[in-house]
Amino acid sequence: MDRAGELRAQILELVAEYFGEAFPATAFVPGVTPVPVAGRVFDQTELQSLTDSALDFWLTAGRFAEQFEREFARFIGVRCATLVNSGSSANLLALSALTSPRIGERHLKSGDEIITVAAGFPTTVNPIIQNGLVPVFVDIQLPTYDIDPSQLELALSDKTRGIMLAHTLGNPFDLDAVVAFAQKYDLWLIEDCCDAVGSTYRDQKVGTFGDLATTSFYPAHHITMGEGGCVLTAKPILQTQVDSFRDWGRDCWCEPGKANTCGTRFSGQHGSLPYGYDHKYTYAHIGYNMKATDMQAAIGVAQLKKLPVFIEARKRNFQTLKAGLADVQEFFGLPEATPHSDPSWFGFPLLVRPEAPFTRNEFVQFLEDRKIATRLLFGGNLTRQPAYKDVQYRAIGPLPNSDLVMNQLLWIGVYPGLTQPMLDYMLESIHDAAKTLRAHASPATTKS
Hints:
This protein is an alpha/beta fold and 448 residues long. Helix content is 36%, strand content 13%. The radius of gyration is 24 Å and the shape is flat.
C-alpha cells in the first residue's frame, strides 16, 4: 500500500471513531424526545463510505454509482437501474422515456391520457402534466388506500395510453387487476415504488410488474442518500431513453469520463447535423441533467446492505401498532394490506372516523403536543389543490374516498429508528387521546 492508501485507511478508521463521539446513543424520554415519522438510520459505515468517495474527488457518478445500480437492480429483480437525483426526477424520467419516438409506435403523444389516482403525492401526477398528457383521476379503496380497480374500465377512453400509480404508503395496489387491465388494452404501466421498496405481491417484489418503476432515496424513505432516486426496468430500450433524458437528452451513452464507446464518435450522420458531428454533443431528446453524485451513491451502497433489516423492522413496527390499536377502532379506521401482498410499510395510516367525537385536527394536535410527529396522506385529493386549478384532467365521479382521506386521514411513523419505548409511548398517547378528547367533546358529538 502506498502512502496515500495508508492515509486513506487511517482517515476511515478515524471516521469510525468520530461517529462514536458525534452520534452517541441517547435515552428516550417520553414527551421530551421527538418521535418522528421518518428519519435517517445509519452508523459509521455510511460515514466511511461517504468519506471514501469524497477522497476520490470524483464529483459526478462513478464507481459507487455503478455498484449501487448493479446491486439495487439485483435486489429488486430487474435488469436495469438508472440512478437519479430524486424520486420525483425518477417519475419525470420514467414517463418522459415513454414519449420517445425511439420506442416505436406506442410512444406517448400530447393529449394522450394516463390513468392515476387523485389521492397521493403530486410528483406521481406532475410528469403526466409536464409531458403534455392528460391525467384521468380515479378514486381509491378503503382501507388499503390504493386504486379502486372497479373504476379502471370507467376511466378508459380511446385516448388512454398508460397507467401511473404509487403503492400507497408501501401497500401494493391490486396488481392482478391493474396488470390484467394494462395487458388487455396494451397500456404502459409505471409503478411508483418510492414508498414501497421491498413490498411484495404474490411473493414478487413491486417494481417488477410494470414497464418501468421508480424509487426514492430521500431521508424519509426505506434507504437514504440524502437526495436520490432510481428508475427501474427490465427493458434495455426503455433504459436507454431514461438515460438520455437524464443526461441532457444526449444521444451518446458514454459513461462519465469515457468517450467513443460506440466507436463512431466522429463518423456518424445524426439528423441534419454535419457528418461526423461529435456524438457526445448530439441530442435525441429535450432532456435534463438529473444525475446523482458518487458521494450520494456511496451512502446508498452502505445503506443497501442494511435494507433487509430495515424492511423487517418496518413490518414489525407496523404490526405492533396495529395490534395495539385493535381496541380503539370505534374511533379509528385501521389499515389493511392488499390481498396477496406483504407490504414494506412506509407509514401507519389512521382514519379518524367521521362519527368520532373529535376531529382529525384535534387528534393531530394532541399527538404533536406530545412530540409525536404526524403527516397527512400527502396532497389529499389533488384535484382540490391550488396547483391543479387550471390543469386539464378527467375525474371519474366525485372521488368520495379521496375527499374522505383528505379530511380524516393521518399517518404516523413505522421507520426502523423507532424503538420499542417509542412505540409503547405512541400507543399510550393514542389511547389517551381517544379518552381525553372524547371526555372533552360536546354532548351533541359524543357517541352514546
